[in-house]
Amino acid sequence: MSIRVNIFGVGVLMAMMSQPQAAMRQYSADADSSHWTVDKKARLECSLNHEVPYYGDAIFSVTASKNKDLTFNLDMVVRPETYAFAGLQSVPPVWRAGVPARDIGQMQLLKKFDGELDNVLSWEMLSELEKGYFPTFHYKDWQNSQDQISVALSSVNFKQAYWAFLQCRDNLLPYSFEDISFTVMNYKKNSSELTKSSRKRLDMIGEYLNNDPNIESIYISAYTDSHGGRWPNLELSRRRAEAIKEYITAKGVAADRIVTEGLGEKRHVAANDNEIGRNRNRRVVIQISRP
Q1: How far apart are CA 50 and CA 59, in angstroms?
Q2: Distances (CA, A) of 108 to 78, 102, 141, 143, 170
Q3: Pairwise CA distance, residues 42 & 168, whole Å
Q4: How many structural domains are present in the chain?
């Protein structure tokens, strides 16, 4: 009986040894290779970047807008082959022995896409990094079911770059390209002078154009109400469109990328038998596009 037991035990041991062994593959920058950099595009976009050696890049970014919301992107060299979730923990540094890791959320993994997080979790990750902790993702490897993957962001050399990133974010324009890409402005009666609110809108467009060199084309169409005669109104609309073009070219946009059109009394958007309607018809429409 004892011989049979021993043979059975050896068989189990050999079977266990023949099976693949689970492993935790860890990716993280060490103290010497931990670098954080800030990249900014005028007053339109800021990013805080961190390379994870042999894995990819961790990128916090924010673009010009009213809220200036933050996003996080885990740019993987090898993207997911399936749909899953990665857990996210705040892991203390080694010198804080005995302090447990804390679960702070999870990130959805989409097939063939990088990992992304929204504003709330992105800010929480930054606050943990500022405290010296290591936000760490962990998930089951989609290429080897026996392995677990751990990807950590190092807080070494973080604070100075983080401060530069916050300053960059604070200086971003409080509106986006989508906010100015289609604009309708109005004029004073029998004049090429914009109303006060429209002048503010045009200044906002001009400020944006000063910061975006990638404008592809601008189409300006001007209209009048029905008072004053068709020919004078047609000429007035043309002058209005050209005045806007001169303003925009002064902001550095090439004149050959700007198309103007004066349409006079055509295409009314409201009735001309009352002042409110005529105010709406005295307008210029600016449409801006980029690649």
Answers
A1: 6
A2: 16, 19, 14, 17, 29
A3: 9
A4: 2
